[in-house]
Amino acid sequence: MSALTDQPTQPRAPEQERGGGLLRLSGRQIRFLALVRRECNRFMKIKRQTVGAPLLETFLYISVFGAALGSRIHTLHGYRYIVFVIPGLIMMAWAMNAFTNNASSILQQKFQRSIDDQLSSPASPLELLLAFSLGGFLRGGTVAVLTFVASSILVDLPVEHLLVLLAGLFFVGFFFSQLGVLVGVRAEQFDDVAVYQQFVLMPLIFLGGVFYSATLLPQPFETLTHINPVYYMIGIVRYGFLDYSDVNVALALLVLAAATTALFLTNLRLFVSGYRLRA
Amino acid sequence: MALQIEDLVKRYPTGTEALKGVSLSISPGQFFGLLGPNGAGKSTLIHCTTGLAAPTSGAIRVFGHDAVSHYEQARLAVGLAPQDLNLDWFLTVEETLDYHGGYFGMPRRERRERSRELLEAFSLVEKKDDRTRTLSGGMKRRLVLARALMHRPRLLILDEPTAGVDVELRLELWQYVQRINAEGTTILLTTHYLEEAEQLCDAIAFINGGEIVAQGTSGELAARYGVSSLEDAYLELVGRKELSRAHLVAEEAV
Hints:
The complex is a heterodimer of chains A (279) and B (254). With 279 residues, chain A is an all-alpha fold. Chain A has one domain (26-273). Chain A contains 10 helices and 4 strands, in the order ββααββαααααααα. In chain A, strand 1 and strand 2 form a beta hairpin. Chain B is an alpha/beta fold. Chain B has a domain at 85-152. In chain B, 39% of the residues lie in helices and 23% in strands. Chain B is built from 10 helices and 10 strands. In chain B, a hairpin with a 5-residue loop joins strand 1 (3-11) and strand 2. The radius of gyration of chain B is 19 Å and the shape is globular. The mean pLDDT of chain B is 93. Chains A and B meet through strand 2, helix 1 and helix 4 of A and helix 1, helix 2, helix 3, helix 4 and helix 6 of B.
């Protein structure tokens, strides 16, 4: 090993400004950006799996349900079947990717114990939680935006209520992002994440009305759909795109915001206590 | 004090009491060895100091900063090279250092310069773009130590840093940590290699059953147990004095 000057430095105040460029960031801001960058770097390094595969999956759904079924179901509530389905697919892409990313990232880092590097840093539980949450949120958002752009090229996809759409997608993404964090923190093996994804989330999303309108279902299935929270999420997003919804959009948004906040606070409590993260 | 621990208790939810009121003081610039058998509480003490475990009760201060409830300043002053090679498989060698520097608030230019220094110092330049999972055990060990030094900590904690490394690397590592200690970095070392602790540390504590049972220089510890070396003092501590080389020589003579 070659010579190196390692005189230790005095710990610096976190709010002290760093850097000499145009953008002067405080130590806290640098830290938070590093935590978020790490999460994004992780999924971008395996983008074929984390972005490419979900995109392909979404387009397979569009092909099968849009082209094949769509040729038989011409319109649904006055919309072309493919146009009716795409908002749900965009929401599903954001939700599933936000969930999977965070659950896998946290579990993998716990498994390798590489998470200790972040846990022993000066980062607060809130900073850690937000950084882990944003990783999945941004991955889901990337897949959803790419799906939207590509869909818009293929079909004429309207955006009738932009603010409702943005608010709806934000809360859906953040809700599933939090759910991913919760499952990742609680999980002790990779099977725990897969079980939750395949046996809980997929059925909820598929039976929530991504590919159909609940009003077309016979009883008791129509009523049963109303106890599925994903049904209301799809309702908000579909309203944002198409100006059509089976649900009370304002109430659904309010409940979704409340549920997201509750989940976030639950996770924050886990991070503060160090549940299954610290000994 | 560089590290001051007072009456530290760590009780796990299972009921196991890993630390039973440990008190310890390490002066700035000291090279301090913490020795004890497996399960004695060494790693738990380190985890409590670095935020990887929550103490049940007691106080920990790093350079006067509370390391438990207002930990930000305390953690900025500590660098940890853990026993496990806990590297992120997705990151390259250089990214590992860069992110670590970021977590400690280092601006980009400073991170770039510091990581270049460390890559050269630890002979990792050629591996800088390799993912950590492709490194050999020795290279991973170097990287774990480089990462701990990235933010120029005032207190460096080395938890069995030479476990499983070859002789050449071990000697290189010791020369390196001796140099940074001479330059002012306080070091807390746990190791099972007693001759190294004897050679490197200017103060040593024995921990057993979650309690500090003896503390002093290696000579003082040997004298306390009425033996001639740190190794014999350690064997007295763990109740295995029949393994002492002096004891075996005496038996052969009989």
